[in-house]
Automatic annotation (TrEMBL):
Keyword S-adenosyl-L-methionine: yes
Methyltransferase domain: residues covered: 46-138
GO biological process: methylation
Protein name: Class I SAM-dependent methyltransferase
Keywords, ordered alphabetically: Methyltransferase, S-adenosyl-L-methionine, Transferase
Gene Ontology terms, MF aspect: methyltransferase activity
Record keyword Methyltransferase present: yes
InterPro entries: Methyltransf_25, SAM-dependent_MTases_sf
Originating species: Streptomyces sporangiiformans
Superkingdom assignment: Bacteria
Pfam families: Methyltransf_25
Length: 267
């Protein structure tokens, strides 16, 4: 069959498939985030930017926080409201949002969501929006791919990787190829989805900005943030994964990057 290229993301448009492909029964990402917020004394009001299906937002709500989950996907937001109630869920654009001035004690941005800001203007708009949304001394907690990992590293590039999972008796397979666009500083992903239900293959393309640790420090400082943590793990998507009581590392060599930054109260 000829594959069909679609502009949307199959998993974003089908939240149940997303949760089947990326199960997180132990709410590891949510627990890691709550640990960071507690460690640095964040207040209770949290914005989860790019909340997806709402699992992490709901975990933070269950930990006693007042949470707003924001996403651009109406399908994700509808799923979150039904399956992960508690937070308030709103539609907002990562590339520039205004949900009020000084109304959050922390902004959380997990699973490389920040890297959907592909250009410097988009990054500036995101950080300006965070600065507007946060109280003085508010926190930004982000977790993403590490651009520095791809300097001279090719183990994740160019060779297709295949994953499969079963949902409601249908086996879904994804064949993913990553390439680096060094001029644009983007990690580009081509993914072909197939299923054993006779449906045609679907090809999808997406990309993440590759940010380097010192570049990220500079961007944050330019927007009035002081970096409190910047390291490659342990975190919710590292190997081995983060566990309660594990302290942050001091290196930025591995493929994930974790940052906690505090807004300078003079901004």
């Amino acid at each position: 069959m000829t594959s069909t290229t679609v502009p949307h993301n199959l998993l974003t448009d089908n939240p149940e498939l997303y949760e089947a492909r990326f199960p997180d029964p132990g709410r590891l990402a949510g627990r890691w985030t709550e640990d960071r917020l507690r460690r640095h004394g964040a207040g209770p009001r949290v914005l989860d930017m790019g909340c997806g299906t709402g699992r992490d937002a709901a975990h933070l709500h269950g930990a006693g926080r007042t949470v707003t989950g924001a996403d651009l996907s109406e399908a994700m937001l509808a799923h979150a409201r039904t399956h992960h109630p508690g937070p308030e869920y709103v539609r907002a654009d990562l590339h520039g949002f205004d949900l009020g001035r000084g109304v959050f004690d922390a902004v959380v941005c997990l699973d490389s969501t920040l890297l959907y800001c592909h250009t410097n203007d988009q990054l500036d708009a995101f950080l300006s929006s965070c600065r507007r949304a946060l109280t003085p001394d508010g926190l930004l907690v982000a977790e993403m791919r590490n651009g520095a990992y791809f300097l001279g590293r090719t183990d994740l590039l160019d060779t297709p990787t295949v994953h499969s999972f079963t949902r409601q008796g249908t086996v879904h397979r994804s064949t993913t190829t990553l390439t680096v666009d060094r001029t644009a500083q983007l990690l580009r992903r081509t993914r072909v989805w197939t299923a054993d239900d006779g449906s045609a293959p679907v090809e999808q393309r997406s990309a993440w900005r590759l940010l380097f640790p010192q570049e990220l420090r500079h961007l944050l400082a330019a927007h009035g943030f002081e970096v409190l943590e910047l390291h490659d793990g342990p975190g919710p998507r590292t190997e081995p994964p983060w566990q309660e009581g594990r302290l942050p590392g001091a290196t930025t060599d591995a493929d994930r990057l974790h940052v906690v930054a505090r807004l300078n109260s003079t901004h």
